[in-house]
Amino acid sequence: MKYFLTGGTGFVGGYLAKLLRKEGHEVVALVRNPNAANDLAAIGCTLVKGDVTEKESMRADMTGCDGVFHVAGWYKVGTRTRKQRKEGTRINIDGTRNVLELMRDLGIKKGVYTSTLAVNSDTKGEQVDENYHFEGKHISHYDHTKAEAHKIALDFIKKGLPLVVVMPGLIYGPGDTSSVRTTLIQYLKGKLPILPRKTAYSWAHVEDIAQAHYDAMLKGKTGEKYIIAGPTHSILDAIGIAHRITGKRQPRAVNPGVMRFMSYFMSLFDWLLPIPADYTSENLRILSGATYIGANTKAKEELGYDPRSLKEGLSTTLWHEMRLLGMVK
Is there a contact between 218 and 112 (Cβ–Cβ < 8 Å)? Predict the structure, then answer.
């Protein structure tokens, strides 16, 4: 099969590209800069220059493909500037509309769109399923833009587009470049001062997420949504598991109210000062006891989704990072 892939130079997209090539498929990978996509070229992907925010840049290369994986997305938690928010809107909302419009116009047989549990924002401790619908104000601009893109995808489905929507939770693993990796490295270096109570995620290893995307293309029912989140753990639980794996000291736990106060305090300054993303008011709001959690029962039953435990996934991830840091050989 011939698949058109957006986001191939990203974390999930890179793992998915490797899996597709391993399974013998042709991969047409959309990249903004082919010279910065050597890893994709090395595994035999066909690199095509383009951008999801420029619809016509994708038309010729998407033509004739059997399926589309739209994985590309803007992921920044802790935005401070109007420019950053505008970029998120262009990529997540406008980019998704562009890709799906082309799928429709070109008669692509099937597509898989990467949404997220963040469209549900803070679930207040409830492990929700695919029928849950969030109403209210989102905590972050990322949540907002992905929620709007999610609505666009569902609207295309209503109009007959053969699309499957997958919804990961927190994704981790070797090669991550997000704030999750930053937190793990700070922990390994003993520089993680405090951790919030109650804040929780559904943690999935990137290899399991890539496999779930592939299975959604092969076995997913068009028009359906699948939560492909991993097991649910609080941040405290996760670092506790990391402590048992590495023996590194655990940071002090604080109540959500402390993080809420810090969020309010930083809101007075982060629009003005170059504050690191981890300490912006937006990021601190998320750490104030928010839960981004979901039930993967449907994906297990219909896709055969089988995510590994957090202990198993963190073990390989932490040892990988420790080798990079020179802590182990």
Answer: no
Is 180 within a domain? no
Instruction: Please report whether residue 217 resides in a domain.
Output: yes
Region class of 147: left (phi > 0), else alpha (psi between -120 and 50), else beta: alpha
Q: Are 188 and 318 in contact (CB under 8 A)?
A: yes
CATH code of residue 213: 3.40.50.720
Q: Is residue 253 part of a domain?
A: no
Instruction: Give the structural domain span for 17.
Output: 2-173+203-229+289-324
3-state secondary structure of 327: coil
How many residues appear in the chain? 329
Surface-to-core class of residue 270, CB atoms within 10 Å of its CB (0-12 exposed, 13-18 middle, 19+ buried): buried
Question: Which residues 6+ apart lie within 8 Å of 91 measured at CB?
Answer: 52, 53, 72, 73, 74, 145
Mean pLDDT of 206-227: 98
Interval 234-279: pLDDT, tens: 999 999 999 999 999 999 887 765 555 455 445 545 554 444 555 5
Tokens of 134: 């969030």
Is 310 inside any structural domain? yes
> pLDDT tens-digit profile of 41-98?
999 999 999 999 999 999 999 999 999 999 999 887 655 567 777 888 999 999 999 9
Instruction: Outline where DSSP puts E strands in 188-299.
Output: 194-196, 200-205, 225-227, 232-234, 252-254, 291-292
The model carries a pTM of 0.91
Tens-digit pLDDT profile for residues 88-124: 899 999 999 999 999 999 999 999 999 999 999 999 9
Residue 151: in which H helix or E strand, if any?
A: helix 141-158
Instruction: Output the pLDDT for position 328.
Output: 86
* Other C-beta atoms lying within 10 Å of the C-beta of residue 312: 12
Task: Report the C-alpha gap between 142 and 152 in whole angstroms.
Answer: 15
What is the number of structural domains in the chain? 1
- Euclidean distance between CA atoms 198 and 21, whole angstroms: 40
Inter-residue contact 94 to 293 (CB < 8 Å): no
